[in-house]
Each structure stands twice: as C-alpha cells, then as structure tokens.
Amino acid sequence: MRRIVLTTVLAAALAPAAAAASTAPRLTVATSSPLVVAGTHFTPHELVTVTFGSKVRRVRATALGSFRAGFGAVASDRCSGFQVIATGARGDRAMLLRPRPLCAPASSP
User: pTM of the prediction?
Assistant: First the structure.
C-alpha cells in the first residue's frame, strides 16, 4: 500500500515538469530545399521574428501557436552547420542548431 501511495505522489509531482517540457517553443526543419522552418508551442497569435544568418522573417503564430517561415534556396555543403532563432514578441524563444559535422575531406576519384 505504501508503494502505491509513494508512486502516485511521485507521478503527481513529475507531471507538471513533463507537461512544461512538451509545451516549450520548438523549431524544426520542415523542408531543406528551399529552407522552411516550422515553429510550435508559441503563444497564440504572437508576432515571431525568425533569424537565419542575416536573413530575417517576421511571421504571426496561428491560434494554436504554430508557424512556418521560408528562407528560399540556401547555399550549403555537406560540411556546413547552421542556426535558426525564433523570438516571440511576448518572450517565447526557440533555437534550432545544426552543428557543423566532423567532416573528412571529399575523396578524389
């Protein structure tokens, strides 16, 4: 009986932390050519500034807090990384980081 009560109390204590983690603003790559990023879990109808290098897009989140921002054709090679930052007018913030991979030199035929 003690074990059941302890498990229930522990689950109740951890549930808010799990819910908060799943609703944090998030960025993903929707398409890579052309580059389109998708944001989720932003404040509904929030104006969001999305930055990729020197390119800046301003988009409005939907009633569900999602958006898409396109950056057109992006010149990159197999060894490049990149960073996209989305900042909401009400303080939401998400970053998508693709680190530069460890890349061996291209082999010669």
Answer: 0.72
Question: Is the confidence at residue 13, as pLDDT, over 60?
Answer: no
Q: Is residue 104 part of a domain?
A: no
Structural domains of the chain, count: 1
Question: At a CB cut-off of 8 Å and minimum separation 6, what does 86 contact?
Answer: 25, 27, 37, 39, 42, 48, 49, 50, 51, 69, 92, 93, 94, 95
* Strand-by-strand arrangement of the 35-40 sheet: 26-32, 35-40, 67-72
The CATH number linked to 31 is: 2.60.40.10
